[in-house]
Amino acid sequence: MQKMEYKFLIDEAKKHLRYSYAPYSNIHVAAAILTDQGSIYYGVNVENSSYGLTICAERSAVASMVSNGERKPIAIAIVTDLEHPIPPCGACRQVLAEFNPEITIVMHSVKSGETSVVKLSDIFKNPFLLRSTKKED
Ligand code: THU
């Protein structure tokens, strides 16, 4: 992925940051997933009065991608209003690995403008997988 493409995906995620539902933590997160088809799917964190039921932005975006018939994410941008970019939590790493253990992760803080880019496989080495992600099913 080229730097220009990172910026594009960050800008897409930024457009959705305002939809984040985070009345409890006040930490707003939005994600934009780019697929091999060139489609983009969005997600935001959705908190709940029963705190543990909170859904992260990354998993919201994966649910949207799958709900729209796609299963091959190649990159995800995660933007936050925290001071520094945030990496996906452990649960989100596992959910991303289900569809692409090598996905490119672009993390960005709208507050500082800081961006960092990694491959999921660099930060999540041994995902639990029951099937190959190379298969079509
Ligand atoms: N959050 C995400 O959306 N993604 C992550 O990977 C880490 C945490 C959200 C969940 C919660 O609404 C807020 O950030 C504080 O934990």
Description:
With 137 residues, the chain is α+β, with helices and mostly antiparallel strands. The protein has one domain: Cytidine Deaminase, domain 2 (3-Layer(aba) Sandwich). It contains four helices and five strands. It has helices at 3-16, 57-67, 90-99, 120-123; strands at residues 29-35, 40-44, 73-80, 104-109, 115-119. A five-stranded mixed beta sheet has the order 2-1-3-4-5. The longest helix has 14 residues, at 3-16. The protein is globular and about 40 Å long. The model has no long low-confidence stretch (mean pLDDT 95). The structure holds tetrahydrodeoxyuridine (THU). Residues 22, 25, 27, 29, 45, 47, 54, 56-58, 86, 88-89, 92 line the site of tetrahydrodeoxyuridine.
How do the strands and helices of this protein lay out in sequence?
Elements (H helix, E strand, L loop, with lengths): L2 H14 L12 E7 L4 E5 L12 H11 L5 E8 L9 H10 L4 E6 L5 E5 H4 L14
Parallel strand pairs: 3-4
Antiparallel strand pairs: 1-2, 1-3, 4-5
Short description:
The chain is α+β, with helices and mostly antiparallel strands. Helix content is 28%, strand content 23%. The protein has a five-stranded mixed sheet.
